[in-house]
Amino acid sequence: DKGEYRHYMLKEIYEQPQVINNVLEGRIHQGRVLEQIFGTNASELFDQVKMVQIVACGTSYNAGVVARYWIEKLAGIPCMVEVASEFRYRATVCMPGTLFITISQSGETADTLSALREAKEQNYLGFLSICNVPGSSLVRESDLSLMTNAGPEIGVASTKAFTSQLVALMLTTLILARRNGYAEEEQMVANLEKLSGLCEQVLALDPAIQSMAEHFVDKHHTLFLGRGTIYPVAVEGALKLKEISYIHAEAYPAGELKHGPLALVDDDMPVVAVAPNNSLLEKLQANLEEVRARGGKLFLFADSRAKVKPGNDLQLITLPDLATEMAPIIYSIPLQLLSYYVAVLKGTDVDQPRNLAKSVTVE
Ligand code: M6R
Known about the structure:
Layout: H1 8-14, H2 16-24, E1 28-29, E2 32-33, H3 42-47, E3 51-56, H4 58-75, E4 79-83, H5 84-87, E5 98-104, H6 110-119, E6 126-131, H7 137-140, E7 144-147, H8 160-177, H9 185-203, H10 206-213, E8 221-226, H11 230-245, E9 248-253, E10 270-275, H12 281-293, E11 297-302, E12 314-318, H13 327-346
Parallel strand pairs: 3-4, 3-5, 5-6, 6-7, 8-9, 8-10, 10-11, 11-12
Antiparallel strand pairs: 1-2
The site of 5-amino-5-deoxy-1-O-phosphono-D-mannitol has 16 residues, from helix 4 and helix 11.
Keywords: Aminotransferase, Cytoplasm, Glutamine amidotransferase, Repeat, Transferase
Enzyme class: transferase
EC number: 2.6.1.16
């Protein structure tokens, strides 16, 4: 039931403050993540992890790319991420002590499931699935699982599944990080507990994002930029836009601009820049000035700390200041809303975009 909402996608975007709390519910005790939430014998397995291989498709893959940044930074162990359709068909090398993680909303995606089955023929340490559907094939065939508890997602464009996967992946990161002497788990858990409120604040920006959407309706191409953990968020923002509005959207790590895509920039191609406060903000700001110097129109999502000169070539949506590690979760939300309103203005079938199925159970 869509209730008061015009589309399932909008309803699911608005469910995120609740969904984020659902992922945390029963998973934390005295400021620390409980290990048994992953399954029996989880601790023993986690003790032996020396490396992580993540495999997933689409939006779930994008969540995996965010997790790579977190795992390497906080847990200090190597992490590789690959789309399942590539992983399953190439000769891969399994290093001893590697934990194999699949991420999937449905738990029934054919490529992800086949990648898991392929990996089981190799010498992986163990198999963990991060999944939204209890009892799905992926969960049944994995040793450990962490459910995202986001509730049924009806809109083909994944929204709440993505943010709940990110929260679940941060819980996983913290479990690995404590084995590496990471001392800020309680602080990070406190940050996770603040997410739901921040999410509400971001949803309140809805009218401003809706007006921003008007600038995209008659465009054919867009560029999304981010750096660090926000690069995969930009990729996910671009995926949402192409999926439901059929506008061609490409995402680039902003540092790559000069290596090619800058040639595309003109006043007919909106550039969406996602710029939370982090160690790369200054570098990103320099990249944005390069875009402006070429007549590009910028649509910027940043917090009060960004130093940009507004002008009629730059529209700014200001998000609340937040802890760096939480930015990928929170900055995904305005990008979901942006795509949603562009699609509504274009009159496309938001919940059931052409040519796509919610669950890709065949190759
Ligand atoms: O159920 P899964 O998470 O395994 O699905 C993976 C992709 O098919 C899915 O995320 C797809 O990319 C979404 N429609 C994107 O919004």
